[in-house]
Amino acid sequence: DFAVEEKPFNKKNLAIALFAAMFLTGAFAMTMVLLEIAFGRVRDFKELSYYSELNPIGEIPANDAVFENEAQKKTCWNELFYRVQNQDFMKDLVFLAPLPGAALATDRLCDVFEWNYAVGGRRMLRLTIVPSMEFVEPSGSEPLGAVWIADGRAVLPLENPYLLSPSELQLLTSDLAELRRTYDVVFIVLAAPLKLRGVFLGQMLQFCDCAILLLGEGTTSRHALRHVMNCNPKGKPFPSVFATGAKTLPFLAKGDA
Q1: Among the listed residues 60, 80, 42, 57, the one whose alpha carbon sits nearest the alpha carbon of residue 217
Q2: How crowded is the C-beta side of 121, counted as CA atoms within 13 Å?
Q3: In angstroms, rounded to a whole number, what is the distance separating the alpha carbons of residues 172 and 121?
Q4: Distance from the Cα of residue 46 to its chain's centroid
Q5: How far apart are CA 199 and CA 197, in angstroms?
Q6: Which distant-in-sequence residues (6+ apart) come within 8 Å of 164 by Cβ?
Q7: Element (H, E) at 254
C-alpha cells in the first residue's frame, strides 16, 4: 500500500480564502445598494429630504380611515393648502401632476385649493389636460384656442402625451393670457400619471411658474425623481412634492379634533 501524504492547509491559503470571501460579500452588497438606488422605490416622505433639488411639502393620507372624524379630515387638507401657500415659490400658474405610482389625488387637492382660494376672495381655474381621443366636445361651447371651457371647468385636449407641439404651446399661451384676466390662479392639472419619456414634463416646468408633483410611498421609483430633477430648467423653483399613501399623519396628533 502507498501512503498518501496529507498537506496541511497553510496560513497563506487561509488568508486567500478569507480575502476572496470578503471581496465577494462586499461586491454583492455594493451591487444590491446600487440596484436599490437605481431601480428601487421611494420608501417614505422622510426620504425626500435627501434630494436637494426637490421641495417636500407634506403627506396625503392613503384613505379616510386615517381620520377619526370629519374635523380631522378638514384640518388635514387645510393644513396641506397652507403649507403650499407659505412657500416663497408659489405663483399664479401652477402645474399639478402625479408621478407613476402615486395615488390620483389631483381632483381632491384642487377641490381643497379652490375652496380655500374662494374663502380668500380669489378665483381659481382648474385646467385639466386629457388625451384628445378621450375628449368629447361640450355641447354649446366653443374653444378659446386650444382650451375648452364648460360648467366652470377648462379642458385642454392633447394629441401627444409626450410633448406639446409649437402650435399647441402658442395657442395655450394665448388662451392663458385671456383667462388670467378673469382668474387669479390657474392650475394646469394632469389627471393621469406623468409620462417619463418625451419632453412634456420639461415643457410644463418651463411654461408654468411652479410645479407640484405627487408620488407614492413605496410605489414611485427613484428613477422618476431623478427624471424630474433632470427636467427642471435652471432658474425655476425646485418642484414641490406631496407623498401619497400615508398611513399616519405626524402633524395630526391622535385625538385632535
Answers
A1: 42
A2: 0
A3: 26
A4: 15
A5: 7
A6: 158, 172, 200, 203, 204
A7: none
CA dihedral 182, 183, 187, 188 (to 10 degrees): 10
Other C-beta atoms closer than 10 Å to the C-beta of 13 total 11
- Of 173, 162, 152, 201, the closest CA to residue 93 belongs to 173
d(CA 70, CA 47): 30
Q: Give tens-digit pLDDT for 145-200.
A: 899 987 778 999 988 989 898 998 999 999 999 998 999 999 999 988 888 888 89
Alpha carbons within 13 angstroms on the beta-carbon side of residue 54 total 25
DSSP assignments along 5-52, one per residue: PPPP--HHHHHHHHHHHHHHHHHHHHHHHHHHHHH-B---GGGGGG-T
Which 8-state DSSP code applies to residue 115?
A: H
DSSP 225-246: HHHHHHHSPTTSPPPEEEEEEE
The pTM of the whole model exceeds 0.70: yes
Bridge partner residues of 56 (DSSP): 241
- Distance (Å, rounded) from C-alpha 25 to C-alpha 109? 47
